[in-house]
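--- STAGE predict ---
source: upstream dedup step, 1 unique chain passed
mode: sequence only
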Amino acid sequence: MRLMQTFYWDCPAVENKEGEWWNLVKAKVPELAAIGISGLWLPPSGKAGHIDSMGYAPYDYYDQGEFDQKGGIKTWFGSRAELRNLIDLAHANSMIVLADAVLNHCDIGDAKELNPLSNNELFTKYTPKSGRFFRNWNNFHPSEYDWQDAGAFYGDLEGYMLPDLCHDNPDTYAQVMAYIGWLADRTNGLGYDGFRYDAVKYFDSWIVENVQNWRKCFGIVEYWDGNLAAVKGYLDYIGWRASAFDFPLFYALREMCNNPSYDLRWLWGSGLHFDSPTHAVTFCDNHDTDRSCPIITDKLLAYAFILTHEGVPCIYWRDYFNYGLAMPDTAHGIARLCQIHRDYAGGATELLHADQHLYIAQRHGFGSQPGLVVVLNTHPDAWQGARVRTRWRNTPLACQAWWGHDLNRPLDKYADQHGWADLFAPPRGYAVYVPV
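--- STAGE serialize ---
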């Protein structure tokens, strides 16, 4: 699978597509399908507390751009009909579509009310126009069902305390599960195929576990932590019923790209995908990291890694469409790497060589995907290569994808009777060799 994150922070305003984002993404579906994108991750689609919102502070979960409230009828992304048209076209192009499920917190409600347990007056009275999921103080922390919050997410926003939902309240839990079912309902709901779970550090893990156990769909948790043991610990809590974004690998890739003294021998074994590849979603930036801790130098090195190694790679919309890293119809860039991943990147991964500036690994192939060898070179101004033993014997190896500070095409190679071949990549670049 190859995912595309179809948004970035404030994207409707940045691209002058306020209320039209769903239509823009829909127009890109055929292009993305052609390079092998097989899944779309959409932003939270429910109506937020104000119209120019990315949806991460939901107000009316069921208002997908139908009701005149909070500044307009459409959401910042569009109408419910436009969203459903996008999802239907994605399905017609054999793509799954993931909803961004924000299950921990809400935007401020319509009126203040007294929480008798904390003796605070908070905006916890919600009367959404969809007529579904009305809330009051008892749906939040502290509640008569549970005083202790797993972790306050917002705290204070513009002077308003924003408590998190209390899922131990049977009404809250029932409403959340009904909402999840509606998101997935292709007849009466929206027809999503799976979920990206936002900010899972801040609410109890049994919620995600129960949803995944019920829906048995593809799910990804955002457990934002560079500590591999912590990420795996969360997956243990939910019985490995979902995948996780590979933040430990992201931080390693960021260092590889941004830090010229990074030693490529540190790369092997640095992420979730090395020992739990079927539960790892790899990425090179997202809407949050792009604003706070982005990869800013030679990011295609990171894409060459995630699109040749195990795990489910997730492409960031801004990298592809705004930062010029797609490079369609060339042997360079994300578009060709996606096609390489689709056609060749099967089977287990084996490290063939690593030193300070050179990293070579191969995929062994599986089924219709015959495998590949990827060479990463972080030397600032010199081609680097090594003689390595591949899995192929008496086989030509063609360089099908490459990029670097020297754009001359790496020479095709030949694996001899014992599998040995000399493989090279350009300075601050990569080369991907495939059997022909």
